[in-house]
Amino acid sequence: NVLSDLLARQEEQKQDSLVARNVVNERLHVDNSTLWRWDKTGYLKAIRIGRAVYYKESDVKRLEEGRL
After folding, report:
1. Which of 51, 47, 3 is nearest to 24 (CA)?
2. pTM of the predicted model, to two decimals?
3. Cα–Cα distance measured from residue 34 to residue 63, given in angstroms and rounded to the nearest whole number
4. How many beta carbons lie within 10 A of that of residue 3, not counting itself?
5. Could you tell me if 18 and 56 are in contact, meaning their C-beta atoms sit under 8 angstroms apart?
6. What does the alpha-carbon distance between residue 23 and residue 7 come to, in Å, rounded to a whole number?
7. Which percentage of the chain shows pLDDT scores above 90?
């Protein structure tokens, strides 16, 4: 039971990790302007830390799998 809880937490943390914008560009085959538009419309929300832009791994994976 403890092991399954630990594995579940690790999976959550992995899915909630942040992915840099340039990595998302390559993975989704889109341009920065597309990511900007998706952020403005709420399709793929960006997380800004200073001037850097990141996206949640779980959101990027959802788009890769075609789940809108």
Report:
1. 47
2. 0.75
3. 13
4. 7
5. yes
6. 26
7. 68
- What pLDDT is attached to residue 6? 81
**For 13-43, how does the pLDDT look when each residue is reduced to its tens digit (9 = 90+)?**
666 789 999 999 999 999 999 999 999 999 9
42 vs 1, 17, 26, 62, 65, CA distance in Å? 38, 19, 20, 14, 18
Pairing of β 18-20 and β 47-49: unpaired
| Extended beta strands in the chain, E state | 18-20, 47-49, 52-56
CA–CA distance, 18 with 45 (Å, rounded to integer)? 12
DSSP state of 25: H
